[in-house]
Design brief:
Strand content: 5-15%
Number of strands: 7
Strand order of the largest sheet: 2-1-3-4
Distance between the termini: 58 Å
Oligomer: single chain
Largest sheet: 4 strands, parallel
Radius of gyration: 23 Å
Length: about 290
């Protein structure tokens, strides 16, 4: 008996198999150009819970809601919910309790925060631990990352920054952030400032803080002025309007960028952090993924 012929019967059959393989690979790519982990058709993706700090400024919650609308547009069908650590409803604890009541759905917490600090390291794991029925992963904060820098640079351009300013020896930028006592959080902001300086063509960018750390925005402005950088812009390393962002902008001697808000790059970054967390082992994950 002869061995069965394992060659393709026709060129059409070969092309068909190649098309099937490519289709399987492309099915893991989203409209936002990020790559999703393979998932069974019978499984729904975990809920993306975007966690903001919370603010008494009524614009803050509305701004984050618009950001999440962009996220939903990029990933149709994904359950995306907004939660807050404090000050605004819904609180994170309430959102997670609701997921438990719905049957214990999986979730990924994506902090809408710009660095590793107390909220990311303690508040989010604590809230997750309080809901043992849920399988929860905690994503990395938004910064530092090139997509964050893209949004920061665009906001400066919207405020009036030009290519000529990048080439000038009299310009500088202060990157205003909330501040933290956590050295890793401060290191994240310093890294973001360095990346923004590279993006702007080598313009000096100094980080400054609204609380808990030095230098303050006025101190950073004086440092740049002492270096001959008198035409100084303030970049807003805040996801939404609030007291700190408003105070930082008020110190600007020239232009002040708006908070990041619903910038398209920030929406892509939220999904990138979500996908990174999903790529971790499927066990209950309370450590912050990097």
């Amino acid at each position: 008996m002869t061995e069965p012929d394992t060659t393709f019967d026709s060129t059409a059959e070969l092309l068909g198999r190649i098309t099937t393989q490519l289709g399987g690979q492309l099915s893991h790519l989203h409209r936002d150009r990020t790559r999703r982990p393979p998932m069974s058709d019978s499984m729904s993706p975990p809920t993306l819970v975007a966690v903001g700090h919370g603010s008494r400024d009524p614009r803050a919650r509305a701004t984050l809601a618009r950001l999440l609308d962009r996220v939903r547009e990029l990933r149709p069908g994904l359950d995306v919910r907004l939660a807050h650590i404090e000050l605004n409803a819904p609180l994170l604890t309430e959102t997670l309790a609701g997921l438990t009541e719905e049957g214990g759905r999986d979730a990924v917490l994506v902090p809408l925060l710009l660095g590793r600090g107390y909220h990311v390291k303690h508040d989010l794991p604590g809230a997750a631990a309080a809901e043992p029925a849920l399988r929860i992963r905690i994503a990395a904060p938004l910064g530092p990352h090139p997509l964050l820098v893209e949004a920061l640079a665009d906001r400066l351009v919207e405020a009036g920054w030009t290519a000529a300013d990048s080439a000038s020896r009299s310009t500088g930028v202060v990157l205003a952030a909330a501040g933290s006592r956590d050295p890793e959080s401060l290191a994240d902001i310093r890294r973001t400032a360095a990346l923004l300086g590279e993006r702007l063509g080598g313009v000096p960018v100094l980080p400054a803080y609204a609380s808990a750390a030095a230098p303050t925005v006025p101190e950073a402005l004086r440092t740049l002025a002492a270096r001959g950088r008198h035409r100084t812009a303030v970049a807003s390393c805040f996801t939404a309007p609030g007291l700190f962002a408003t105070r930082a902008a008020a110190h600007a001697p020239w232009i002040a960028a708006a908070p990041l808000g619903a910038h398209p790059a920030l929406a892509r970054l939220v999904l990138h952090r979500y996908d990174q967390a999903l790529a971790r082992a499927p066990r209950r994950e309370l450590a912050v993924s990097r």
